[in-house]
Amino acid sequence: MAEERKDVAVEEQDAAAAERGGLWRRLRQGLTKTRTQLVERIGAAVEDRGVAPEEVLAALEEALISADAGVETSLELIARVRGGLRPGELADPLRLRELLVDEVAILLLDAPPMPRIPVTTRLVTLVIGVNGSGKTTSIAKLARRSLDLGESVALVAADTFRAAAIEQLVVWGERLGVPVVRQGQGSDPAAVVYDALQAARARNISHLIVDTAGRLHTKKPLMDELAKIGRVVAREGGEDCARRTLLVLDATAGHNVLRQAQEFQNAVPIDGVVLAKLDGTAKGGMVVSLARDLRLPVAFLGVGEGAQDLVPFNAREFAKALLGTGAE
């Protein structure tokens, strides 16, 4: 089996670290609003021992929908829970949450996995998403993660449509101590990426993180722009250069981001999703719909404003943090 990049090779260690402490605490903290709402509703659903079983399950369904898991996803989860219940378990809110953890994890694992990136001299990560989604901050978090893994990093300001986008990336580059490859506003994004690849080769930089235009007025210009960047990467990066595309979505928009994700998915191939601002919403259930309805793998979760607040996605750990089971 071919050796893989560090960010893939440490996947199991990340999950173990989440269970032991640091990442687990950040994930739980990021999902506090969603978890609190779900736990309270589940508790209320079984508080009255005289309530009929179907009424309890209906209340569970409403709780999932309120967390923006989506109607179809919520119905499927409740059907799965109903099939796994033993007599008397409807009166036990912890058991209900444990069953939901199992079923949520199964749905999440059913989505296609992130593509495996082989070990290469260089990785180019194209980051797409609308303005205001948390794209620039997510780029900084991705850079911080690579630095923590011992990789050399450069940021690439290929969103030349807005001068502010370039300036924001420069600020993050200074904070992180990493170079930012840029040109002026209105420059050809592919030309900026070309410069970045030349700089990476000269400085032996292993990971280029590219900020792309945060707009999706129509699909064709976005597709054409990213296709041109892709041709530059293929031509100038060489055989030892890999590429991936990550879509940043704003978790505070809840289930509404599914339409946005669908539009991007129709425009360009997406390798994975970075869900930003998860700590600011009670609608974390939409992660399950992303996996079930759009078959999009979630790569990372943004659970705070700091550069270190990026949690690699793990289906089981997410389900446990969502429903308040497991280690505190």
Order of helices and strands: HHHHHHHEHEHEHEHEHEHEEH
The level-1 CATH class of the largest domain: Alpha Beta
Q: What's the number of structural domains?
A: 2
Q: In angstroms, what is the radius of gyration?
A: 21 Å
Describe it.
This protein is of the alpha/beta class and 328 residues long. It is built from 14 helices and eight strands. The chain has helices at 6-9, 11-20, 22-30, 32-47, 53-66, 71-84, 93-109, 135-148, 163-176, 189-203, 219-237, 257-267, 286-294, 315-323; strands at 122-128, 153-157, 180-181, 207-211, 241-250, 272-276, 298-302, 310-312. Helix 7 runs parallel beside helix 13. It is elongated. It starts with 5 loop residues before the first helix and ends in a 5-residue tail after the last helix. The model has no long low-confidence stretch (mean pLDDT 84).
Describe this protein with a few key phrases:
14 helices, eight-stranded mixed sheet, 328 residues, Four Helix Bundle (Hemerythrin (Met), subunit A), Rossmann fold, 2 domains, 13% strand, 53% helix, alpha/beta
Task: Give the structure's gist in a few sentences.
The chain has 328 residues and is α/β, with parallel strands linked by helices. The protein has helices spanning 6-9, 11-20, 22-30, 32-47, 53-66, 71-84, 93-109, 135-148, 163-176, 189-203, 219-237, 257-267, 286-294, 315-323, and strands at 122-128, 153-157, 180-181, 207-211, 241-250, 272-276, 298-302, 310-312.
